Amino acid sequence: MPSSALTAAHPLKDVTASDSALRRFLHGLPGVDAVGLEGRAASLGTRSIKTTAKAYAIDLAISMVDLTTLEGADTPGKVRALGAKAVKPDPTDRTAPSTAAVCVYPDMVAVAKGAVAGSGVKVASVATSFPAGRAPLTVKLADVREAVAAGADEIDMVIDRGAFLSGRYLKVYDEITAVREACGTSARLKVIFETGELSTYDNIRRASWLGMLAGADFIKTSTGKVAVNATPANTLLMLEAVRDFRAQTGIQVGVKPAGGIRTSKDAIKFLVLVNETAGQDWLDNHWFRFGASSLLNDLLMQRQKLATGRYSGPDYVTVD
Fold it and tell me: Which of 29, 61, 87, 290 could staple 119 via S-S, CB 3.0–4.6 A?
């Protein structure tokens, strides 16, 4: 079930009462020590994972993948094939876990829903005029409602980065809460910040708190459509934010790094970040996801290598 925004009785509710109150709160958050943040992310990335733990981590990572296709050339056939792969990533090995979800454009939701029916794999839809988000709110909300009506279990929305960067925080907050309402009770909401366009770590921290205050079920780094997407440092910062938010409010929010995570080695580094920063409560696909298209193939190849001692190579996994 989706999480709810802060109740009226909660002390943090007052920070969203006006644009000035919200600005004071967001700019009152501790500044980010960029050198310290990047140093800790790099240090955690050097942790050695042994064979048994590595096998567990690979299966966990597979179960956390939002298998994604977001191209103008997407066809129903491609989406059905992607859905089949999400349900059974390795047809030769029934012990391989399913992915968490398939992520598609709103007009492909019904096709994806049919492809994963009965499997437990969720259907996520990028709505709100993804990836730029440059559309009137009425259009964005219609996008969301149509996706939910078609069966979307999750909505991945993009924030108005122009409004955020110009300091119109309440506008961004109101838009997220409106989308949250449009999701109803059946769809969880992932809020995408496009961290590569936010320029500073301080902005990423502010966006994280803004999204959580507005009722996000997940905060997500990126669309995957810009030059800088998920990095260990920006994901670490968001993990710190969800940890601290739960400590203050009792509300748990998920994290989804997306874009640029292509290898098993990279995925395992992110899982170490989760464990060491937010803790084991987030080591579950209900609270942590990878937004990826090519990552799954590398995870499957590494899984086969651990099982057989041989590296099969890309010819032994399906092409997305």
Answer: 87
CA dist 239 and 234 (Å) reads 9
**Residues of the chain where predicted confidence (pLDDT) is lower than 50:** 1
Known catalytic residue at 220: yes
53-83 exposure pattern, b = at least 16 Cβ within 10 A, e = fewer: ebeebbbbbbbbbbbbbbeeebeeebbbbbb
* Distance, CA of 30 to CA of 37 (rounded, Å): 13
Taking the C-alpha atoms of residue 77 and residue 67, their distance in angstroms, rounded to an integer, is: 15
What's the confidence (pLDDT) of residue 308?
A: 82
pLDDT at site 29: 97
Q: Which of 153, 156, 160, 217 is catalytic?
A: 156
| Count of other CB atoms within 10 angstroms of residue 84 | 16
The catalytically annotated residue of 113, 220, 269, 298 is 220
Q: What pLDDT is stored for residue 66 in this prediction?
A: 97
Catalytic residue of the set 85, 122, 140, 256: 256
269 in catalytic set: no
Q: Taking phi first (over 0 means left), then psi (-120 to 50 degrees means alpha), and beta for anything else, what does residue 103 get?
A: beta
